[in-house]
UniProtKB/TrEMBL annotation:
It comes from Pseudonocardia hispaniensis. GO terms for molecular function: DNA binding. It holds the Pfam family LytTR. PANTHER family: STAGE 0 SPORULATION PROTEIN A HOMOLOG, TRANSCRIPTIONAL REGULATOR-RELATED. This is LytTR family transcriptional regulator DNA-binding domain-containing protein. The keyword Transcription does not apply. Residues 353-460 form the HTH LytTR-type domain. Keywords: DNA-binding.
Length: 460
């Protein structure tokens, strides 16, 4: 495969090199050279997970209009204004500026007539799906999978039919859940984008991010109000959780169960407490959307007991959308749910874990990974082949994918492969520390809230 000489980069050599590496990877090679790490991770997802046809020349239509929470309407409005402003900046550059929803479905596109006509040849147009699982590595879908702005140039696109484009994209993420809410992109035919594209994208989503923050703070206030109006059962405890399962407000008893401050409202999402109840909150949101009268019960682990405690969960609504949930301790009313926070196993184990070292892709069997550690927006793996950066973007995602392989969340920052735990140490105040079977006997702390879960999982 060759790339048109007018395309993509300031030098032909780069385009030719990426094209050669793309051909090797499509043919089944795992090691590539000179390809950006984000692109390598995307190629792996396209080939191994999504199985996207690399010869694709047209993005498929979005099969069903993807649903989005009403709180994202303000995001689309803000991004639409930003897209129009950017289009004025690039009106002489033959660019297409588009806005997509969090599922990668294009909602609107702007550009001069010739640019839009050329874009339609690849179905870079409203109602088409540019998620990675549908259209491979591209500015929209890869922005959904990335923490910041992305630039996909020529043969960096997974699908050969899109390799005449250079695309920059950035996702606006829900400030509560971290899920993508919308994506802003700039695409140009056979020519590199201006150096200012990253600034344009970042500036373009700034107002949308602030709108989400205001909405999240308002939802926090409403959760505090719902907490104050709720009837607390005798001898129990109550906590208000946001949609991500973080604590907005806990009473005295719940604060002991969850090890968070009591009666201290956390209206701003940046100040809320992570307590490992994301799955419970997600189930409450999903069931509440289907049935506004839904109430469920489950069991969770706490630091006060070696045994799980029963909880009842009830979604909280504002303008017909779920903004969080109230959890009542010591109650079991409504629809039963499976225990939350135990060592349940779901589905089949994935074949490999993907790490990166520079621009090299490292494919690992689950047994080769001892633990994963969150460090800001990065996830690092302790492996038989050294310390590697993970292709995953959150411990929650890794936990869900590899629970069948013996991995357990022991701390908000650590996911441990229990098969590699060699010793368990106790601290002066009863804290637990896991000693791994590495040459340096690496030690991973166990949070107090997860101590009972870890003891049960290890049989101690």
């Amino acid at each position: 495969m060759s790339i048109d000489s007018g395309a993509l980069e300031d030098t032909l050599d780069y385009g030719d090199q990426i094209a050669r590496e793309w051909e090797r990877f499509v043919a089944g090679e795992d090691q590539v050279t000179g390809v950006p790490a984000d692109v390598v991770r995307s190629w792996f997802r396209c080939r191994e997970e999504y199985r996207v046809d690399p010869s694709l020349g047209e993005a498929p239509a979005a099969p069903i209009p993807s649903e989005h929470a009403s709180l994202y309407d303000v995001v689309f409005a803000e991004l639409g204004g930003s897209a129009v402003s950017i289009q004025r900046e690039v009106e002489n550059l033959d660019c297409v500026v588009s806005v997509a929803d969090g599922a990668g479905r294009i909602l609107a596109a702007w550009g001069d007539r010739s640019a839009l006509r050329r874009a339609r040849d690849n179905n870079l147009a409203p109602m088409s799906s540019w998620a990675e699982g549908a259209s491979g590595t591209n500015g929209i879908g890869t922005a959904v999978e990335s923490a910041g702005p992305v630039l996909i140039r020529g043969a960096e696109h997974w699908c050969q039919g899109f390799q005449n484009w250079v695309c920059g994209g950035i996702a606006v993420r829900d400030v509560v859940t971290g899920e993508p809410a919308a994506i802003l992109t700039i695409s140009r035919w056979r020519t590199s984008l201006p150096h200012a594209v990253t600034r344009w994208l970042s500036d373009g989503v700034a107002t949308a991010k602030e709108a989400l923050r205001r909405t999240a703070r308002q939802a926090g206030l409403e959760l505090v109000g719902a907490f104050g109006q709720a009837h607390l059962p005798p001898g129990g405890g109550m906590v208000a959780l946001d949609r991500a399962g973080k604590v907005v407000l806990a009473d005295d008893q719940a604060s002991l169960y969850l090890d968070v401050p009591a009666c201290h409202p956390a209206v701003d999402p940046a100040t809320r407490w992570e307590v490992g109840l994301s799955r419970l909150a997600r189930l409450a949101s999903e069931n509440g959307r289907r049935d506004p009268s839904w109430i469920g019960y489950s069991q969770i682990d706490t630091q006060l007991s070696n045994e799980p405690i029963a909880v009842t969960v009830r979604p909280v609504f504002s303008s017909r959308r779920v903004i969080g949930s109230l959890v009542f301790f010591g109650k079991d009313e409504g629809e039963p749910l499976s225990s939350v926070g135990d060592a349940e196993r779901y589905g089949a184990s994935p074949r490999r874990i993907v790490g990166t070292r520079g621009d090299r892709l490292v494919l690992l069997r689950p047994g080769e990974v001892r633990f994963a550690e969150a460090d800001g927006n990065d996830i690092w793996l302790s492996t038989d082949r050294g310390r590697l950066q993970s292709s995953g973007h959150s411990l929650d995602k890794l936990e869900g994918e590899f629970s069948t392989s013996g991995f357990l969340r022991v701390h908000r920052r650590f996911l441990v492969n229990l098969n590699h735990v060699r010793e368990v140490e106790r601290g002066f105040k009863g804290e637990l520390f896991l000693v791994l079977d590495t040459r340096g006997n690496e030690v991973v702390p166990v949070s107090r809230r997860n101590a009972a879960l870890v003891r049960r999982a290890l049989g101690i």
